[in-house]
Amino acid sequence: ACDESGRHMPKPNPHLCFLYENTTIIQQPVRHENLTATFVSQAKSFIMENKGNPFFLYVPFAHCHVNMFSSAQFTNSSLRGIYGDNVRELNWGAGEILDLLRQENLDEKTLVFFTSDNGPHIELCLEGGSNGLLTGGKSQTWEGGIRMPAIAWWPGTIG
Prior knowledge:
By secondary structure, the chain is an alpha+beta fold. It contains three helices and four strands. Strand 1 and strand 2 (about 25) form a beta hairpin.
C-alpha cells in the first residue's frame, strides 16, 4: 500500500501510509528515502536519553519486506539488486545503533536480539530474497516461509 517505486502498484495510497511517533503522525505518506535514517536517529536519541537506566528499545526496520526500498546512498550498491541494497542499508542502520552502544559503554549491559521476517517474498523472484534450498517463502507454511534467522548479541554474557 506504500510502494513508491511503481514496480508493485501504480502509486502509494496515502491514506494507508503513515509513520507515527507515539500518538502523532509525523509522515503521511511515509517517505522511504529517509525511513531508515529516521529509525536510526530516533533509536540513538532514545538510547542517549535513557542510558542511565534500564530500557527496552524495539526498532522495527522496514527492510527486506515488500515493498523493497533503499535510500539513495544504498540504491544500486549491491550485486544482489534491490534485495541486496535493502540488506546493506539494514546492516548500516543496525551497525549505527551497535556502535553507539559501544561508544557509551552500554554494550556489556545490553542484550540485542536481531531477528527477521518470515521467509523471502518469492513472488518477486530474486528481488524478494532467497530461500536457499528450502521450499516456500513469505506467507507459506513450508520451511522456507517460517524459518527465521536470529542473532543474540551481549558481549561478555553471550559468547
